Amino acid sequence: MTTGAYISGAGHLFMMLWVLLGGVIFRAPPPNVVSTAEVSLISPEAYAELAALPEPESTQDIATPSAPDLSDSPTVPDAALSPQSPAPRPEIAEPADAEDVPEPPELDVPAAEVDDVAPSPPAAPDTSDQVALLAPVAQPEAPRSAPRVAPVPAPAPPPLAEEAPELSPGVTETPEAREEEPVVEEQPAAAPPEATTEIVTEAEDEGQAFAPRTSIRPRQRPPRQVLEATRTPTDPEPEASDNLSAAIAGALAEAATTPEPTAPSRPLGPPLTQGEKDTLRVAVQRCWNVGSLSTEALRTTVVVAVSMLPDGKPDNGTIRMLSSDGSQAATSQAFEAARRAVIRCGLNGYDLPADKYEQWRDIEMTFNPENMRIK
Amino acid sequence: MNWLRLTCLALLGLTLLPASGTAQSGPLRIEITEGVIEPLPIAVPNFVAETPQASDLARRISQVVADDLRRTGLFRTIDDSAFIARVTNFDAPVSYPDWRAINAQALVTGSVRQSGGRLDVRFRLYDVFAQAPLGDGLQFGGGTDSWRRIAHKVADAAYSRITGEDGYFDSRVVFVSETGPKGQRLKRLAVMDYDGANAAFLSDGSALVLAPRFSPQGDRILYTSYETGLPRIYLLDVNSMRRRLLNEQSGTMTFAPRFGPDGDTVVYSASTGGNTDLFSLSLRSGRQQRLTSDPSIETAPSFSPDGSQIVFESDRSGSQQLYIMSASGGEARRISFGAGRYGTPVWSPRGDLIAFTKQNQGRFHIGVMRTDGSEERLLTASFLDEGPTWAPNGRVIMFTRETAGASGAPALYSVDISGRNLQRVATPVAASAPAWSPLLP
Amino acid sequence: MADLRKLGLVLVLLAVAGCTDRFGGGGSDGAGGAGAIGGLGSPSDVTSPAYFQQTIGDRVLFEVDQSTLGEGARVTLDGQARWLLDNPEYAARIEGHADERGTTEYNIALGARRANAVQEYLFAQGVSINRLQTVSFGKERPLEICSDESCYSQNRRAVTVLTAGAGS
């Protein structure tokens, strides 16, 4: 026995006590102190009562913009007007004589409806020589334009394949995962909607022919799945593993003897492997749609807690926000997007090992949109 | 020593456990950093008509709401034919599973009551998967001829509640309508709802007009007209249609007028002896102030939202570039340094970005950069894109796109500041030089 | 002698024909008809506006984004100055223009520079500044409407439009 061993033992003992008791002393604030969207939610019944009041506060009277009273003058020719406005137009009119109204026939008059489809960008001029000069670095993965931006690009679906409303569970997210888990390929999966990995603006689409693009960061490689790692005989620490797990099991047995109000009634099971966690992470991010978030909400990271049911489905009523680094408004939208992700992709239950239920009964998910902001 | 090693391992194991092992007291933690960006599926079933004669307006109002949301590119409206549930009673509980089955993630319901010339519209927004209302229900009232504005208000509220951005649908756009051959364009001031509806002319076309701008209150318009033979700036009161010439000086051309956020200060360019500089003018007091005195071209000014600074373009460096100076003039600092020429800077209503026109290698772009010139991002590219204007919420930019050639014509386009959702804006005639109003009260 | 005079007439006619071709029938660009004089007279009459417009040449052209006068432009302006000095009953409005490859307001300013360059040159040749107004139309009134350099070069111009007697 050396002094060093005593010091080490004392240190470890302190750490152990800190771990066991620290939770009591430094308990995180209860989750419900964070005010979230719920505070402003009211039940339909409550709303009905509100709405039944003679003058709800929210009533706004809206008038058409007051307009000049120059009724003798013509407005835009009726034929050219949007068909959606049969009602009398606002009275804004010109002071001119009717005879002065010009005829627009010589012009190519644009159709009076919003064209949803952006015009295809003009063909880039042939500047292959310049490309060689300006952008000598090959860009193997120039993102395409696509209506969907996702972590993993998906090709445009073949003409006959319908776009699945969302990814079916049979589709894994990464090619690597597919190689290691061929079994999931058994069910024919609907094609995922076409997706690109970044927003490609018209200028960037075209710019690829012109100049080096400096603003686009390289895409992160999806983390490789290591689902089987712990089950393989080639354990990274072969000599210590048996002893270590035995020691841990012993320690746990000791820990279980200490009074613990929420002690589980069933075996804890081993911790989730990285691969199992990744599967869950990938499953949630498939449904995490930040496309309709404000720019401010896209700068807001929220931590969301959810309790899971044994069948792998989230207990939707337990989804709550633990913390956020954004303003209240942005937090509310960020939380709602996160909640939608958890619920939507958990409709059929997440793929989690049932024997480790106690390990994933309570989950805290941090939704950090930093990577999505720049796409 | 083996037992000591084991003890240490056990202790070590204990200290490591809280991170992974004690699930009963510490939850499983994962971090989500990758998501998807796609339009949110939303269902907007026809609003419920609470009075018999309201059914037509109920249908049209819900259509405008759906169009507004879809046009943002942030939503995908689900076709009525897919609906399983019908909303026939505004106050009845929502059948969430029926909406979930068609993957509607949000649901807008509404009711319309029409009596006499009076219209009252109620609406609610629901998160289908969370099975909960999103925010309070709202009620809007007005005359029946305001039905489009009411619909835009409803859409603004829904958009705002889901995205967290302020809305922008209940707004107008002043622009220049263009008719006639390219060499002899007839240009008239015109105004329309942001979506192209309710268009009306504000001038008769007898004189060339350029680049109108709304006042911060939306009640007046500044523009340039060649009425006197020279380009001169005018102020038009939208309510009375009265207009007046500002600052007539013999032989001086004035153009590019813009309101300051106080609604009183106007900055503009004046050109004498071939030199163009920036000046400011108080509408109330008539007091004028010279802001720049360089032999170069200074034009296309735009106030910061707080009124303290002005961004403008100048070719003092030898080519068109962007500069920022104090609203009272003085030293200016250049903020654009990329390749090509930069013009028509417009400060975002949020204050964080400046939109501009960029000309490079024979192409025109609309782009945005931060106010220090960093993070430049080009959003569009074409033969001729020009003159960005911000939606009141600073999320969308509208601009002019003109096609090439003898039959070339201008049209209005809009684009999200992410560069997505480029689309043509409906206008009854060829149009250019749009300027967005503030959100209407 | 009669032959010589005939030859001279033919030469004048040829020159006029060439000018007419080049300028597409003459007349002001229509940028601002207001104030421009009506009867042009005959291009062979040295005191007529038609002579000024077609024989001397009423416009000068500029390089891209420039307002400096080239050698050819100065020759044209020398002729304009002499004509204006010889015909004091006329005044002139100088219209500056730009091609469409620029933004609207910048091009107004650029056209103002071009008009001013002509004004200063004529003034330096002795024409009273009171007779020389300037106005810029930017890219609003292109003379040629195609979208390539052949048209752009014709649109980067300053046109001296004669007006009735303002400065006489």
Description:
The complex is a heterotrimer of chains A (375), B (441) and C (168). Chain A contains ten helices and four strands; from the N terminus they run H-H-E-H-H-H-H-H-E-E-H-H-E-H. Chain A is mainly α and 375 residues long. In chain A, helix 7 crosses helix 8 (328-345). Chain A is globular. The model of chain A is unreliable at 22-58, 65-142, 157-189 and 209-264 (pLDDT under 50). Chain B has 441 residues and is mainly beta. The longest helix of chain B has 19 residues, at 2-20. The N and C termini of chain B lie far apart (81 Å). Residues 8-24 of chain B have low confidence and may be disordered. Chain C is of the alpha+beta class and 168 residues long. Chain C is 44% helix and 15% strand. Chain C is built from five helices and four strands; from the N terminus they run ααβαβαβαβ. The longest helix of chain C is centred in the first third of the chain and has 21 residues, at 2-22. Chain C starts with a helix and ends with a strand. The model of chain C is unreliable at 6-34 (pLDDT under 50). The interface between A and B is large, with 159 and 139 residues.
Oligomerization category of the chains in this entry: heterotrimer
Backbone CA Rg of chain C: 16 Å
Using the alpha-carbon principal axes, give the shape of chain C: globular
* Helical amount of chain C: 40-55%
Annotation, overall tally of beta strands of chain A: 4
Calculate the mean pLDDT score of chain C and round it: 81
Main sheet properties of chain A: 3 strands, antiparallel
Question: Could you tell me which chain pair has the largest interface and how many residues each side has?
Answer: A-B, 159 and 139 residues
Low-confidence stretches of chain C: 6-34
Structural class of chain A: mainly alpha
Terminal CA distance of chain C reads 38 Å
Brief summary:
The complex is a heterotrimer of chains A (375), B (441) and C (168). Chain B is mostly beta strands and 441 residues long.
List keywords for this structure.
heterotrimer; A: 375 residues; mainly alpha; 3-stranded antiparallel β-sheet; 4 strands; 30% helix; globular; C: 168 residues; alpha+beta; 4-stranded mixed β-sheet; 44% helix
